[in-house]
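tool=predict chain=A
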Amino acid sequence: MNRRLMLILLSAFVVAAACSFVVYRVVGHGLMASQHHGTNVVAAARDIKLGSVLTKADLTTIEISGTPPKGTILDMKDAIGRGVVSDLYEGEPIVQTRLAALGAGGGLAATIRQGMRACAVKVDDVVGVAGFVTPGMRVDVLISGNPSGGPANNSQSRVRTLLQNIEVLSAGTDIQKDAEGKPKQVQVVNLLVTPEQAELLSLAGSQTRIQLVLRNPLDTQISNPPGLAMASLFTDSNTMAKVQSGKPVHRAYKPASRVYLIEVFNGSKRSESKFVSGGENK
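tool=predict ok
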């Protein structure tokens, strides 16, 4: 074979090998860079319960590829000492919204959202939902009593729905569900309410009897029940039929009539006269 031709072929082979090597290095470096491109973020080193205060032992760092979620904590110093407002699980990246503000501490106070209040309502084994409530459930608040301020067991007693779709913050001193999510027997339930709702509950607790009724957490509809008077349980059969059938009842409340007895003495004679408010004299 011609020596000159051999030299040309050898040179071409060397140039092709060099080009292949350069392309391989460039492409390989790009692939490696894309594979190792990530961000170190702060994550939970173990399962952490709601209300806990984070320590260094509770935290670790993990690398996630791509752009980290909004609010992800990148430095442990931004998480240590802050309360947990919802359960965290091992290996889960920690974001700002899952933690209370710095200095808010832990426990029940850390779970109260901005602008809200925790209001305690007393319940027992018979009235309300004692023994059937866990944190996170939704309840309605009913009150019963005498609008005129008299005894609650007379004919003028009434019941009405005071608040609806209220979140249960804690049952007794527990702000967490147990391992199986079962309810516990408690005497006090803390509700998450606005300041205005807290005032209503405080007044109702001192003047009326409070009862809690459970509702489906997916049912957010606000109804408008008219309330019910004690006298209507025995006299208004149409209203009771609607209530028992589940139909809405729209009826204006009419207070019961009052009877006034007046004694008249004319010398040795004595007589009585009765006057009925809203009715005719007898």
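The mean pLDDT is 76. The radius of gyration is 36 Å.
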